[in-house]
Design brief:
Pfam families: PPO1_KFDV
Shape: elongated
Number of strands: 7
Protein name: Polyphenol oxidase
CATH superfamily: Haemocyanin C-terminal domain
CATH topology: Hemocyanin, Chain: A, domain 2
Helix content: 10-25%
Number of helices: 2
InterPro entries: Polyphenol_oxidase_C
CATH class: Mainly Beta
Largest sheet: 4 strands, antiparallel
Structural class: mainly beta
GO molecular function: catechol oxidase activity
Distance between the termini: 32 Å
Organism: Trifolium pratense
Strand order of the largest sheet: 1-6-3-4
Radius of gyration: 16 Å
Length: 121
């Protein structure tokens, strides 16, 4: 788990209608001859991290092996605006992001986890 800073909080209704808050996981590096999968969860920093009913699943990253040796580097983006509304964390400065390995072997490196805003239209 890592704590991720939210660049904006308390967005207006207009901002929420125009922009999606997006969790970005950059620099996912692994052997291209490996299959990997992990689930992504977000949580309120003030909540007890061991309390699973307060943690929200936001998506899964999956990559199947490509049959050749070498390194693969990619990224994963997932919209989290609705999840944050459900958690009532619009006023929070930070979120806890947890990656839960599901499939894979070998080393997986994560370059950066951040939040950005993308236009909805």
């Amino acid at each position: 788990s890592v704590i991720v800073k939210r660049p904006k909080k308390l967005r207006s209704k207009v901002e929420k209608e125009q922009e999606e808050e997006v969790l970005v996981i950059e620099g996912i590096e692994f052997g291209s001859d490996k299959s990997i999968a992990f689930d992504v969860h977000v949580d309120d920093v003030e909540d007890d991290l061991s309390d699973p009913d307060q943690v929200e699943f936001v998506g899964s990253f999956v990559s199947l092996h490509h049959g050749h040796n070498g390194k693969t580097s990619t990224s994963f983006k997932v919209g989290i605006s609705k999840v944050l509304e459900n958690l009532n964390v619009d006023v929070d400065d930070d979120l806890v992001v947890t990656l839960v390995p599901k499939v894979g072997e070998g080393e997986v490196c994560i370059g950066n986890i951040m939040i950005e805003f993308l236009p909805k239209y």
